[in-house]
Amino acid sequence: MKNLIRYEELGIFLLSIYLFSTMGFEWWVFPALLFLPDLSMLGYLAGKKVGAVFYNLVHHRGIAAAFYLSGICLENETVALVGIILFAHATLDRIFGYGLKYYTGFKETHLGRIGQ
Question: What is the pTM of this model?
Answer without folding.
Answer: 0.90
